[in-house]
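Structure in, sequence out. Go:
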């Protein structure tokens, strides 16, 4: 099957008339459009809506109208709706995974994994809502105080492009369980895989409970400033989060805002490790076969003891060079293209700057170069050795297949290197000495730390960052609580008539 035929069949499965549209109030919303590009070829393959601020406000209208009925439904009914959605996701999961590979450039094994993760979250996370409890106390002999959790109402979510389907699904489960309705704005680089979820939501959930739109910054601003949206979550860059924070008061309403932002994450490797195992972890930690290094949790700084740094780097280079890179939705491809031409240029700019500053920029040529379309946004993995630790390539999030390598001598030096950046999302520590590993794990400024592991999420462990990497935690019961407001009910208990006990 040709790429053109494959893409057309996918669009036919998910969209009426084979044209992606916004999903608002249970209906497909069309209008003016713009081209959307396949990063594997660099060529347009469809169109998506040009979402306006008024379109976004219509989505908030739909969510606001649907919310009272949704929140009054028993929790068991809300769970049943999500289970129906999960069954549809399972039935259409293969096609949706392929569509996401077309849309994002992430390789098929990775998008299939994301679909599996979404199904696991839909299966497991409702248990947190079932177990959620308030608190009660008896502060006086004639008084009872207890707390209950109430939904905010309409929740807005703005997602990033590196996991467009997973971020949408994972981001809707807990707000919906809490009784909220949602407006989700897809990333403008990867809107199609997110909008395609409307095909499943239309069958599983009441109209207006979840609304999906694409759009640029103007649409996002309309969501951020709408006073009816009291709870916002954002996945993306620190710079955009700061812009959103500056706009939160523009609608004249106080809002609860949480963020999952970028990272310049360290992998600290002591001198007592198995070098082959550590090298494999360094490559896995870069998310090259997941999203081409376009991951906020990528351990993109390898901080290794000076006695092992050369043989470790050689092993990492060999592993990176063994990857196959090509059209993301073809079987056998391990690494796809970057998401867009502007982002490819940005990553190349970091490499050129590092080389001009005297660093050794090492390309790790991948397999199958002849099979890649000339117009695709491909970039082989690169190692940057000898860069100044304070340089941009060593301190700023590149969001691509670039790993900088830095030596250390003492534990204090390793922690200083790891912590001198403004981000603090994730980190990895490798050592056979458990005392040393835990000293480093406790000393690193990061919200999610692996010890002798890499790039794996542990079910229920709160995921989120410190410093410039975000506010709030996800994938845990605490996230469920964050989509509710706490209400205290205080009751005076009157004595029985006649003074009876």
């Amino acid at each position: 099957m040709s790429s053109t035929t494959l893409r057309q069949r996918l669009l036919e499965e998910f969209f009426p008339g084979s044209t992606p549209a916004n999903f608002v109030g249970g209906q497909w919303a069309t209008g003016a459009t713009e081209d959307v590009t396949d990063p594997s070829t660099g060529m347009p393959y469809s169109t998506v809506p040009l979402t306006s601020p008024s379109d976004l406000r219509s989505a908030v209208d739909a969510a606001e109208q649907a919310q009272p009925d949704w929140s009054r439904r028993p929790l068991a009914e809300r769970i049943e709706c999500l289970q129906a959605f999960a069954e549809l996701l399972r039935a259409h999961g293969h096609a949706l995974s392929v569509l996401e590979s077309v849309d994002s450039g992430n390789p098929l094994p990775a998008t299939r994994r994301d679909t599996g993760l979404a199904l696991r979250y839909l299966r497991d996370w409702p248990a947190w809502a079932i177990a959620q409890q308030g608190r009660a106390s008896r502060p006086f002999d004639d008084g009872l105080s207890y707390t209950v959790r109430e939904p905010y109402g309409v929740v807005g979510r703005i997602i990033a492009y590196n996991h467009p389907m997973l971020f949408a699904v994972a981001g809707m489960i807990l707000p919906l369980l809490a009784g909220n309705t949602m407006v989700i704005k897809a990333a403008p680089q990867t809107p199609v895989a997110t909008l395609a979820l409307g095909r499943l939501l239309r069958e599983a959930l009441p109209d207006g409970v979840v609304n999906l739109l694409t759009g640029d910054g103007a649409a996002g601003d309309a969501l951020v400033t709408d006073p009816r949206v009291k709870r916002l979550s954002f996945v993306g860059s620190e710079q955009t989060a700061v812009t959103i924070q500056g706009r939160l008061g523009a609608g004249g309403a106080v809002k609860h805002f949480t963020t999952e932002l970028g990272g310049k994450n360290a992998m600290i490797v002591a001198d007592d490790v198995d070098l082959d195992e550590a090298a494999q972890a360094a490559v896995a930690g870069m998310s090259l076969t997941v999203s081409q290094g376009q991951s906020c949790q990528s351990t993109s700084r390898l901080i290794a003891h000076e006695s092992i740094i050369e043989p470790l780097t050689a092993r990492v280079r060999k592993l990176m060079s063994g990857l196959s890179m090509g059209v993301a939705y073809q079987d056998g491809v391990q690494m796809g293209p970057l998401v867009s031409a502007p982002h490819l240029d940005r990553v190349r700019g970091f490499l050129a700057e590092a080389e001009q500053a005297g660093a050794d920029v090492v390309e790790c040529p991948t397999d199958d170069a002849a099979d890649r379309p000339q117009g695709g946004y491909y970039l082989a993995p690169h190692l940057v050795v000898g860069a100044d630790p304070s340089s941009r390539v060593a301190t700023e999030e590149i969001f691509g297949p670039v790993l900088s390598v830095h030596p250390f001598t003492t534990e204090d030096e390793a922690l200083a290197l790891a912590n001198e950046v403004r981000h603090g999302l994730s980190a990895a520590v490798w050592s056979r000495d458990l005392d040393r590993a835990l000293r480093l794990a406790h000393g690193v400024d990061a919200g999610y730390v692996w010890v002798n592991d890499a790039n794996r999420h542990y079910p229920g462990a709160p995921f989120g960052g410190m410093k410039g990497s975000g506010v709030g935690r996800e994938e845990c019961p605490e996230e469920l609580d964050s989509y509710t407001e706490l209400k205290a009910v205080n009751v005076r208990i009157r004595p029985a008539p006649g003074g009876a006990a």
